[in-house]
Amino acid sequence: MASFKIEGGHKLNGTITPQGAKNEVLQILCAVLLTPDRVVVNNVPDIIDVNKLIFILGELGVKVEKLSSNAYAFQADDINLEYLESADFKRDGSSLRGSIMIVGPLLARFGKGYIPRPGGDKIGRRRLDTHFEGFIRLGAKFRYNKEEYFYGVEADELQGTEMLLDEASVTGTANILMAAVLAKGETKIYNAACEPYIQQLSKMLNAMGAKISGVGSNLLVIEGVESLGGCEHTVLPDMIEIGSWIGVAVMTRSELTIKNVSWKDLGQIPSVFRKLGITLEKKGDDIYIPEQESYEIQNYIDGSVLTVADAPWPGFTPDLLSIVLVIATQAKGTVLIHQKMFESRLFFVDKLIDMGAKVILCDPHRATVIGHNFESQLKATKMTSPDIRAGISLLIAALSAKGTSIINNIEQIDRGYENIEARLKSIGAKIERIED
């Protein structure tokens, strides 16, 4: 397993272009299974999770052509459904949570879809009920092999219906949406997720010939069609990576420009960072972060302590709460971080406490951070990345710390961030990859 060796305390400077959005592209790649025609996808990030899904598609029989470093063409005109019941698929699919989203397209087009219980980050329970309850509402039969943790849905024909999702699950909405576009009749999905990722998927499906209305709202209406054709689609910049680069700039007190961020799709992200006292300037479609020696957390107008909490879109994304928490360790003031959606995502704070941060873990969902205002620099340490988002947060902490830190299990970071070491070096970071 590889590690990062980071010499902290150096100011950085330069320009960064964010990668394509991981959470969008995993949906988009699954959607290529809905048509036998050629689909071109641009701005595909070169990261472990995306490459795993492309490998699975290839094993399914999808023709994969790499057009450039971040562009691919896919053609699913000769699918090998036997692979779905093979030992290889049970191994391959279980290592990637995003693989769950192949089930909806396969069910819609071929009448069956199977998936082993997916893996992914160790951030608490993330149940699959929303996905399968949606498929059942569309007329599929569900089966589950408890011994092999293997799920399956089958249907001779899917029938449009109305459904109210029990949670506004992004992957659940995407999966059901991809199944419904080829169902007979009209489907209405209430309490649908409306993240930019779902909006992008809907736009792509409509470009392929689907009839989806209500895009951007929590009520999606789908008029089923007989078949879909090919298209070309460009993935949005990754809002989570954009937030991560903001964290890098702020914690190292550096000047940084983040290019082509698609401001209109960032939602509350800029305003939440501004509530922490961070200066962000909009320059065209770029974010400019000037060098800041300090930043002060805003209290509420009645003087009470600011709470930053996650919520379904258009609320603040849970994937950036760990970044906010790290930034707060050097702010002036106090903030309560409330992670509502996952019960284990705050468990990395013990590493920050080891580095000298003042963080009180109230319970699995809440942490109070008392900022140092850079009067006491974080101290370097040796630590292990527990998941993608905590991993990048610890990396940001290490870049600001006094001394040399070691981060183990960096494969977790590589799952979500493209070529992070080289990109950090390009703006002056002292970071080295160590292979065991």
Automatic annotation (TrEMBL):
Annotated localization: Cytoplasm
UniProt function note: Cell wall formation. Adds enolpyruvyl to UDP-N-acetylglucosamine.
GO molecular function: UDP-N-acetylglucosamine 1-carboxyvinyltransferase activity
Protein residues bound to phosphoenolpyruvate: K22, N23
HAMAP family: MurA (MF_00111)
Annotated active site: D121 (proton donor)
Domain of life: Bacteria
Gene this chain is encoded by: murA
Transmembrane segment boundaries: none
Main localization (coarse): cytoplasm
Keyword tags: Cell cycle, Cell division, Cell shape, Cell wall biogenesis/degradation, Cytoplasm, Peptidoglycan synthesis, Transferase
Protein family (similarity comment): Belongs to the EPSP synthase family. MurA subfamily.
Binding residue positions for UDP-N-acetyl-alpha-D-glucosamine: R97, D319, M341
E.C. number(s) listed in UniProt: 2.5.1.7
Start and end residues of each Enolpyruvate transferase domain: 7-424
Name of a matching Pfam family: EPSP_synthase
Pathway linked to the protein: Cell wall biogenesis; peptidoglycan biosynthesis
Name of this protein: UDP-N-acetylglucosamine 1-carboxyvinyltransferase
Catalysed transformations (reactions): phosphoenolpyruvate + UDP-N-acetyl-alpha-D-glucosamine = UDP-N-acetyl-3-O-(1-carboxyvinyl)-alpha-D-glucosamine + phosphate
Enzyme class, spelled out: transferase
